[in-house]
Amino acid sequence: MTPSSSIAAPGAVPGHEATDDHGHHPSYLTDGTTVKSWLLTVDHKRIGIMYMAWVLLFFLVGGIFALLIRIELLTPGPTIMDAMTYNRVFTLHGIVMIFLFMIPAIPSIFGNFLLPLMLGAKDVAFPRLNLLSLYVYLAGAGFALWGMLNGGLDTGWTFYTPYSAHTTTTVAPVLFGAFIIGFSSILTGMNFIVTTHTMRAPGITWFKMPLMVWALYATSCIQVLATPVIGLLLLLVTAENLFSLGMFDVARGGDPVLFQHLFWFYSHPAVYIMVLPAFGVMSEIVATFSRKNIFGYRAVAYSSVGIAFVGFFAWGHHMFVSGQSTFNAGVFGVLSMLVGVFTAIKVFNWVGTVYKGAVEFSTPFAYFCGFLFFTVFGGMTGIAVATVSLDVPWHDTYFVVAHFHFIMVGATIMAFLAALHYWFPKMFGKTYHEGWGLVSAALIILGFNATFIPQFLLGNAGMPRRYYEYPERFQALNVASTAGASLLAFGFIIIAVYLTYALIYGERADNPWNSKGYEWLTASPPPTHNFIGPQPTYPEEPHFYVDPNTGKGEVSDV
Amino acid sequence: MSSAHVTPGSVPGPKLAAHFASLEVQKHAARLGMWLFLATEILLFAGLFACYAAYRFLFPEAWAACSRELDLTMGTVNTVVLITSSFTAAMAVHYAKEGKNKMVGHMFVLTLLMAVAFLVIKYFEYKHKFHIGTLPGRYYFYEGIQLPGAPLFFTVYFASTALHGLHVLIGMTVLMFSTVRAYRVGDFSANNYTMVELGSMYWHLVDLVWIFLFPMLYLV
Amino acid sequence: MAIANESQQEEHNMQEHHGAGRYVVIWVVLLVLTLVTVFTGRMHLPDFGLLLALVIASVKGTLVALYFMHLSEHRGANRLVFGVSIAFVVLLIGFTLMDFGTRFRLANPPGSQYSDLQAVDIGANKAEGRQGGHLDEKQKQEKHE
């Protein structure tokens, strides 16, 4: 494989501002160090890094709320807060984690950073809109946080009417904040779609794009198609809350179930906004650390688009017990199973890639193993709760809570951490301590299971969600769950420490994994316009590794 | 983004941003981006259409009665005005391709005038409703229609027309930029008309939404 | 080459230039269709009135999209984007209506089903201070007293 230096050929293009006399190219990190050069940058890499700073901050906030919930549930009665505070805390946990962490986490951080690198482009198609999306996100977050500090709200993150239209807590600013964040999501999605269509380097055809790009593309389609609907809905509910216009008011003939239809039209596909990029990350990582071409490239690529598509046909499975017609419930239940088909295609192909591969068991691969477990386990319970007759007793119990934390949070967190470790050298040109990486990965996977497997059991035993008290017979499992959560927190603290250490004192690294992904064709960290000199060409496939068994380059099958 | 170079030749062309491979790519990106944006707009209104459809299904009688309460003449005039403004916007693109910048400006001024006319007519419609009390939700006090669902019709009516009106205002702002550029700079040509084209596309979308809102609200 | 293909194709498609006559024709057709839909709308056709109006609106919308927005000249992604967005509008409305159409009757508010609909006095009366078809809390209390 050509080392990156020969591709970053010394022939500097005239007019390239990032070139000094000695042919030395500063990386995007050192090209301008003023605060202004960061805040007003249009460089997709810097925007990705700024997103990372903010998203991690909100992850910390949401995590603190999660710990508060777990501490409260340590004892059957009131532990550290009253019922109203508890309602506010779980609402804020949901809102912060979903709107401020999970939705932007992988697309806005790693997508922004990697998409142009993976396509051989200098930047995304609309760099200024990209910066705008960051500030729109921050403005929305500001609104939401302002509402939280001024009392918070107690509707749950789903804002169901009629309660959200009548509660006196600060619903309006938070709803409006979420509405604004929607714009940020749309801008990112539009940018990615246009970039994928127009900015691919010569040689990168649709079926030579890295699988991460396919996943981001599918995610962007969902963002563009679904987000406007919830934008409108949040506006309507804000208006309902402030002026009682009666759109969903039963007393005036309105139908709250209509609200739920519109809400889940976005919010179910939103699950795939969170988890599809995770699938993309894992497709990259599994090929790299198995030293093998991805098994069934086309199947994995198509199934990303497939999930994005059938994800829109499943929203009614959130409404089995809320007054939706039985017929619709059945139809949605059956259609929801389709998502399982496409996810299974991915899982089989990942396993097929690992099979007979030369596996290098490093931190990202450890997260891949955790991810595989959470995806399969969470996905299977998803099939179970999509069955109407099973969902009726499970609905609004901890079983559902555990299910969506497994598939949506577990899979996404695993991918987020894997991506963080895998692309850490790409972003900063440094490596972290592998031993600590494996230890914390083990802690987090263990902690996550210890937190949520008891919740499956609790839900099955009938403990409803969103209550701050429970009968004493549930205490043992709740204590186990809280213990797991503290393991998780401990794991995250270790990661924060050693990654911060690596950021400052880490060893210099360029491509420590010998990865053949397109993004590694340039230097680490990349120069401002990604490539020095002429655009690289891409004769090989993105996951092209020599087959460990035959010693020959494996041609992509299917 | 700093502009690297301007296309050679005597025809003034648009500036090429440094991260695009060529002007073609840049134009293609702008156009595709605009289509995607219009898709989000369509889905934004889709939410209201869904509300309309659901409540029309539940309250057909109230819907028919309330619809007849609206002023069909004003609605029809508004439709004609908006369709005509869409036509002039299309003509602006036509002239921009031919490099006739004066005509581009004139066409957009006509479009803007009709947009103002649309809003004025809408104002009178709203004023009448505030007067007789056909208002959304709990503000409804009209005694002529006492059917369940009647206040809901006006919730849908006001929500959709207000959102559409907001888009008219945004569209006017967008077109104003192109108008000023056509008169002041006058550099639109066959090579450089993306700005006119995209602004005009937005305006057609505003028209497109109204084409559906009109029969839904006035002609049930 | 990947970049070149898609964008060059686009450029090529957009180079078509037609006379202004085409726009005039579309404009006239749109105006005629508007008059037709007003005419048929005023007949208050019982069952398919709304359907007919929506069909006419769809024809008008298609004309605007194809010719004013030049979708007829576009290929590939632009068409796909527009088509997909329309498809998802249909999806949203379709599934929602399917729910409303197949609900068991008691799930809907009383008086809301077509078959049991009659002119119910919802009680709006400005002189008595009743608005929006239901009593405010204060009025309810007064009524009880």
From TrEMBL, chain A:
Subcellular location: Membrane
InterPro entries, A to Z: Cyt_c_oxase-like_su1_dom, Cyt_c_oxase-like_su1_sf, Cyt_C_Oxase_1, Cyt_c_Oxase_su1_BS
Keyword set, alphabetical order: Electron transport, Heme, Iron, Membrane, Metal-binding, Respiratory chain, Transmembrane, Transmembrane helix, Transport
Membrane protein topology class: Multi-pass membrane protein
Disordered: region residues: 1-28
Domain of life: Bacteria
Pfam families xrefs: COX1
Domain Cytochrome oxidase subunit I profile residue range list: 38-539
Segments traversing the membrane: 49-71, 91-117, 129-149, 169-194, 214-237, 263-283, 295-315, 327-345, 365-390, 402-424, 436-457, 477-504
Signal peptide: none
Principal subcellular localization: membrane
Entries under PANTHER family matching the protein: CYTOCHROME C OXIDASE SUBUNIT 1
Family: Belongs to the heme-copper respiratory oxidase family.
Protein's name according to its UniProt entry: Cytochrome c oxidase subunit I
Organism of provenance: Corallococcus praedator
UniProtKB/TrEMBL annotation, chain B:
InterPro entries in the record: Cyt_c/ubiquinol_Oxase_su3 (IPR024791), Cyt_c_oxidase-like_su3 (IPR000298), Cyt_c_oxidase_su3-like_sf (IPR035973), Cyt_c_oxidase_su3_a-hlx (IPR013833)
Keywords for this protein: Membrane, Transmembrane, Transmembrane helix
Superkingdom in the source lineage: Bacteria
Pfam family membership, one: COX3
Residues spanning the signal sequence: none
Membrane topology annotation: Multi-pass membrane protein
Main subcellular localisation: membrane
Transmembrane segments: 32-55, 75-96, 103-124, 156-180, 201-219
Subcellular locations according to the entry: Cell membrane; Membrane
Domain Heme-copper oxidase subunit III family profile: 31-220
Family to which the UniProt record says this protein belongs: Belongs to the cytochrome c oxidase subunit 3 family.
Name assigned to this protein: Cytochrome c oxidase subunit 3 family protein
Organism: Corallococcus praedator
TrEMBL record, chain C:
Pfam families in alphabetical order: COX4_pro
Parts forming coiled coils: none
Keywords: Cell membrane, Membrane, Transmembrane, Transmembrane helix
Membrane topology: Multi-pass membrane protein
Principal location class: membrane
Transmembrane region(s): 20-41, 48-68, 80-98
Organism superkingdom: Bacteria
Localization, UniProt: Cell membrane
NCBIfam families: caa3_sub_IV
Name this protein carries in UniProt: Cytochrome-c oxidase
Species of provenance: Corallococcus praedator
